[in-house]
């Protein structure tokens, strides 16, 4: 069930969101027209969504270790799959973004069952991609799925406080980071700041569920105002950050998607 908070947040978003015709940045206009609006182009949906359906029908229980919410214990795979908030459309959008920016070194915080990861990895099959997951048994399920489909994803298990910095050091730099592992304000901001020393001029950060709660909205505002942030795009479900030095003045866009 969608919370009242998110409904109100969406209504506020719709009041301020602009279409491609309200965008005056050539860089953002190209991104919107060449990537965001290509919704009819489907990528990887058959495999990813067949797997989602398989998980939704799976009544097996696993011991879930949820380091973000603290709600750990036995949980059916079906229940986990049903709560995955990223829809096929969001997975395809991430695929298109990755195809467009062509990152070489990618990082994801929050593998879960690996549905969204599949879309991302399908767009960069020969590049270096590390995905972090806190729950061992959930990670095992995801790794099995990746191996079946021959995806080049390295899954590292453990608390992000222990695995994030090591992953960044191994990658040396990051071109793409997807944050989807913790919906708490302080943790989200801390992970963002931990990644900052490893960015390049063309690095892109994507945050899931930026309007999930008051905490996530506060985290998003802090991230937008960070000295390194040059541009932000609010698509409601996703928030995108750019660090382009050629962007002389900080700009924030709320885009209808």
Write a structural description.
The protein is built from ten helices and ten strands. By secondary structure, it is of the alpha/beta class. It has an eight-stranded mixed β-sheet. Strands 1-2 form a two-stranded antiparallel ribbon. Strand 8 and strand 9 form a beta hairpin. The longest helix is centred in the middle third of the chain and has 14 residues. It is globular and about 50 Å long. The mean pLDDT is 92.
Count up the domains: 1
State the total count of DSSP E strands: 10
Q: In which order are the strands of the major sheet placed?
A: 5-4-3-6-7-9-8-10
Report the uncertain regions.
none
Measured distance between first and last alpha carbons: 21 Å
CATH superfamily: Vaccinia Virus protein VP39
**Rg of Cα set:** 17 Å
**Strand count, sense and closure of the main sheet?**
8 strands, mixed
How would you summarize the topology of this molecule?
Blueprint: H1 4-16, H2 26-36, H3 45-56, E1 61-64, E2 73-76, H4 77-82, H5 88-101, E3 105-109, H6 115-122, E4 128-133, H7 136-148, E5 154-157, H8 160-171, E6 174-179, H9 185-195, E7 199-208, H10 214-224, E8 231-234, E9 238-242, E10 251-254
Parallel strand pairs: 3-4, 3-6, 4-5, 6-7, 8-10
Antiparallel strand pairs: 1-2, 7-9, 8-9
